Amino acid sequence: MPLTTLPVLSLADDAAAFSQAIGDSFKTFGFAMVKDFDIDPALIDRAWQLSEQFFALPEAEKRSYHDPAIAGARGYTPFGTEIAKGAKAHDLKEFWHIGRDLPDGSPLADSMPPNVWPAQPEGFREVFRELYAQFDRTGATILSRIAIYLGLDEHWFDAGIEDGNSVMRLLHYPPLDITDGEAIRAGAHGDINLITLLLGAEEAGLELLGKDGSWISASPPEGAMVINVGDMLERLTNHVLPSTIHRVRNPNPERARFSRYSMPFFLHLRSDFPIATLRQCVTPENPDRYPQPILADDFLQQRLREIGLKK
After folding, report:
1. Quick one: average pLDDT of 152-179?
2. What is the mean pLDDT of residues 245-258?
3. What is the spatial distance between Cα 226 and Cα 243, in angstroms, rounded to a whole number?
4. Residue bearing the bigger pLDDT, 200 or 68
5. Is-contact 228 198, C-beta < 8 A?
6. How far is 65 from 179, CA to CA, in rounded Å?
7. Statement: the pTM of the whole predicted model exceeds 0.85
8. pLDDT on residue 235
9. Contacts of 56 (CB under 8 A, 6+ apart)
10. Are 225 and 197 in contact (CB under 8 A)?
């Protein structure tokens, strides 16, 4: 089945049927498309508006929210900072990160800095706090279905994502003045986290690397989102669920003068969770690739260095 025939799955379906369908899609492609998720469409529309308004602010104002000491974990990261692992040119994007608000005295505070909130546009903090919460709940539901597919209790992931280091990224790919060179909007990469939930962008560009080595355009239909396996879930499942390489290519010349906005939610484990290979994902044909567990935060920090956000 070619990737272009990926079905759009409904989260409203029977849990067992949905679990099998999304697990099969992940196992085969590392990606799935899902509709009927419980995120308020009006809230999404407002979030797109606020994201566009923020990135239209003067450069100096945006940079006032950039703190290199926290490796892009919260607040603003300027254009041209991030680089895909192994790439020669930095990505043509700027972004803003929103994380979890931890309770006072949380032992995770050392690895999860507090949020940074801009003075404008008005309503930014309230809208994105609520959208973060709705993404978080939807992601937890998806993980419960993945747990069933893996033969685990549906609540297996609950403890691992409680106060997890999940991040919502507001992305802006500015208009391009160039149509050649090595730099692209987002170089070929795999995501670090467990799963990524991505709303469809108005401008095209997301491409997945097929098993035959070709790049395939993949955009969800209206009302659906793309969900993909991240490197943490790939490691946890001993590559039973693969993390697929993807990129955001540069636009065709006639679309180069338009910005592209995107809003992925990177669902992470809690920082102190040990990523240890699931026993049911180890077989004689698929021996354990990772006999030594690694803490989720150690894995994250290692990858942040590889993509240029942490020195």
Report:
1. 91
2. 74
3. 14
4. 68
5. yes
6. 30
7. yes
8. 97
9. none
10. yes
Closest Cα to residue 172, out of 59, 309, 308, 31? 59
Residue 64 CA to residue 1 CA, distance in Å, equals 48
Mean pLDDT, residues 254-266 taken together: 84
Contact 135, 39 (CB under 8 A): yes
Interval 232-244: pLDDT, tens = 999 999 999 999 8
User: What's the confidence (pLDDT) of residue 1?
Assistant: 41
Share of the chain above pLDDT 90, in %: 66
Residues 8, 34: Cα–Cα separation, whole Å: 5
Cα-trace Rg, the chain: 19
Sequential DSSP letters for 42-104: HHHHHHHHHHHHHHTS-HHHHHTT--GGGTTSSEEE-TT----TT-SS--S-EEEEE---PPT
35-50 pLDDT tens trace? 999 999 999 999 999 9
Identify the DSSP state of 266.
E
User: Residue 105, CB half-sphere, CA atoms under 13 Å: how many?
Assistant: 0
**Integer CA distances (angstroms), 18 to 142, 144, 204, 299, in order:** 9, 11, 27, 30
Tell me the three state secondary structure of residue 142.
Answer: helix
| Chain center to CA of 51 | 17
- Beta bridge partners, 207, equal 217, 247
Q: How far apart, in Å, do the first and last CA atoms of the chain sit?
A: 42
Half-sphere exposure of 260 (CA within 13 A, CB side): 22
Q: What integer pLDDT is reported at residue 2 of this predicted model?
A: 47
